[in-house]
Amino acid sequence: MKDRSVNWWARLRGLGLAARVVVLCSAVALLGVPMGSAAYFLGGATGALAAATAGGVCLLGTVLALVVSHLLQGPKTVLYGMLSAMALRMGIPLVSVLALHLQDGSLARAGVMYYFLVFYPVTLAVETALSLPISKKPAADSQAPRDSAS
Fold first, then answer.
1. In total, how many domains does the chain have?
2. Average pLDDT, stretch 61-81?
3. Is 6 inside a domain boundary?
């Protein structure tokens, strides 16, 4: 019996770029609904805007990282793709949260930094799962030949 979770992950990683971006956006939207509700409850409209800003900025960084890693996946450019994707995935949210925090505006007072701490690990995990290469396991029949003498 085949493990369905393995097939599901393989199919997810085998999707095209546009479909993987939709999966990433869906993950942020699914997290955004409870986070936006909690942020609105805690800080009103400004809190909800802070949560939406954090989710949007983290989504922007991971979508750009997904696109760059997709474009630079050849054998000679895979390292450049990985490093560029890492810089985008980490740099855009980090610079944004630093700028918002140092500005000390209404978003900073509404706790935008805390919302970044919620959205960033989720977008990181989903984008990393979508960026992994598809493993090519050998078929059960093509394993090492059996010794017929024993």
1. 1
2. 90
3. no
